[in-house]
């Protein structure tokens, strides 16, 4: 009779076969064995998922939430798990997937309390905010990169603040929006400086004027107006330069640019007199210069 091998030898061989992928029946992993079984209640599975989410064990958290959603779809915890899946994607940094999940939740459950209090709409805006390009030292600064994600964040945060002005998330949304506007203004200033450097002052002035009008509340108005005044001087238009520097002094007297604007006003008074004449030139073309500033697509 042939000699029988010990049990642990068979176990070792089985494990090696699983690792090599040679068994056609497949082998369960430790993670798969931890999947919720059919005896767990929806409430228990949801609470286990929340505990895993709190511990930042995202794959396990998502397993529990998906189990509730798929196996017990008529439980109230199925809807909560659907939202929790979006929260898990957000926590993992999968912001594109999180946006899709939050939007789907709002579409399917428009009267849910987390939709009604603005939570879902805020999370959508915050997801876009988190997905904005970062400043990494080996890459171009964020204001030189494509601004699509920044514009998306502005749109969603503005929409949230419009529809949920009294939400408990409104204060945080205002803070995020201010940073979004700063990013957008930085980009406009970058473009304006590029045009000035390449001797396109009219185009530079238009970019700064646009930034002032499009992004009120950015906190950058004194800086923008000061740069606009300098640009008008560069264009040989002392009247508009005087009016612009006067705005800085009158509207933002405590800003650092106010004192420098006063010096420019003194210069204009000495150079052009108390009533400088407007520059008599044709209206600037609205067409962009032939050479636009480079924009990096790196995120």
């Amino acid at each position: 009779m042939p000699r029988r091998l010990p049990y642990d030898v068979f176990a070792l061989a089985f494990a090696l076969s699983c690792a090599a992928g040679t068994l056609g029946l497949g082998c369960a992993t430790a993670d798969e064995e931890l999947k919720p079984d059919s005896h767990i209640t929806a409430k228990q599975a949801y609470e286990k998922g929340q505990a895993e989410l709190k511990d930042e064990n995202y794959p396990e958290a998502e397993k529990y939430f998906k189990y509730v959603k798929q196996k017990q779809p008529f439980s109230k915890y199925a809807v909560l798990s659907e939202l929790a899946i979006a929260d898990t994607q957000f926590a993992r940094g999968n912001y594109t997937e999180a946006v899709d999940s939050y939007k789907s939740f709002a579409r399917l459950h428009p009267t849910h309390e987390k939709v009604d209090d603005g939570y879902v709409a805020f999370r959508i805006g915050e997801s876009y905010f988190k997905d904005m390009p970062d400043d990494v030292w080996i890459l171009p600064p964020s204001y030189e990169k494509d601004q699509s994600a920044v514009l998306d964040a502005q749109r969603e945060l503005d929409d949230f603040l419009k529809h949920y002005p009294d939400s408990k998330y409104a204060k945080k949304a205002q803070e995020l929006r201010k940073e979004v506007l700063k990013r957008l203004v930085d980009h406009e200033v970058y473009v304006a400086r590029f045009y000035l450097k390449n001797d396109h002052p009219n185009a530079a002035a238009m970019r700064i004027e646009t930034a002032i009008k499009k992004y009120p509340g950015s906190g950058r108005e004194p800086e923008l107006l000061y740069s606009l005044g300098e640009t008008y001087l560069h264009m040989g238009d002392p009247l508009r330069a005087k009016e612009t520097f006067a705005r800085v002094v009158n509207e933002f007297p405590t800003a650092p640019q106010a004192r420098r604007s006063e010096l420019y006003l003194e210069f204009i008074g000495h150079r052009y007199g108390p009533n400088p004449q407007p520059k008599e030139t044709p209206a600037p073309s609205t067409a962009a210069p032939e050479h636009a500033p480079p924009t990096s697509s790196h995120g």
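The chain has a mean pLDDT of 82. Residues 170-197 form the longest helix (28 residues).
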